[in-house]
Amino acid sequence: MLVYRCGLDVSSRSLTYLATRLREHRRRIGSRWRRLSVGRQALLVLAHLRNGPTYAQLAAGFEMGTSTVYRYISEAVDLLAALAPTLDEAVQAASTKAYVLLDGTLLPIDRIAADRPYYSGKHKRHGMNVQVIADPFGRLLWASPALPGAVHDVRAAREHGIIDALAQAHPPCWADKDYHGAGGTIRVPFRGRWEAHSAGQQAVNRSQAKIRALVEQAMATLKSWRLLRKLRCSTTRITGLVQAVLTLHHASSTAG
User: Fold this and answer.
1) Kind of pairing, strands 119-120 and 173-174?
2) What share of the chain is helix, strand, coil (3-state, %, to 5)?
3) Are residues 175 and 113 in the same domain?
4) 241 in a domain, yes or no?
5) pTM above 0.90, yes or no
6) What is the average per-residue pLDDT within 167-192?
7) Which of these, 127, 110, 129, lies nearest to 119 by C-alpha position?
8) What is the predicted pLDDT for the residue at 133?
9) Is 139 helix (H, G, I), strand (E, B) or coil?
10) Which structural domain, as residue segments, surrounds residue 58?
11) Contact 45, 18 (CB under 8 A)
């Protein structure tokens, strides 16, 4: 296999943060020797999450075995996922905002047609449903655990407790028509055909669409980690990957 050097469009703060967490973890478990230093392990993990290369490709680039690459990445992902902000913490931050944005996204997965629970009729493909909360500027506040793609957005929001949590914190929440019937503080556009709406209803829907458009920035932030654009791993590992990415995003955006 040919090997070449490649740039990684990730902040150095993310590398420093992950390396520090790995160093603390190794000290905590009493690890004496590793094939890679904490800095190199952090780089390995960031390359996996950001660019999505296979374990075999990473193994060739870092001159180590594929099984060792898998162990190093799994260790770091589990560590990062455990540090991800909880829904309560995200809602507490959201309570200081004028309003928040809620939307769902589908993370594509490699599945066959027989895997119906993972097939999204809305997106016409297999994937995992992830709910995203963003602030008024479209900045990513929180991403939910992953559910099968067949789960509707409003059902996913209920299962994660998002609706109740936002209702208790009281920040207004703008969402699209997929959240009709959610209740609480969630505001959705009027249903039905555009021409059937009154001028006032059309104006409300137009205004809401402009506000909700900013949530796409949060979606883009999540999917800038290219591994999440086409997941080939077990579906049981996807929540951990999403939470790891969320941790790195917050570490990079809040670091001084």
Assistant:
1) unpaired
2) 55, 15, 35
3) yes
4) no
5) yes
6) 92
7) 127
8) 97
9) coil
10) 12-82
11) yes
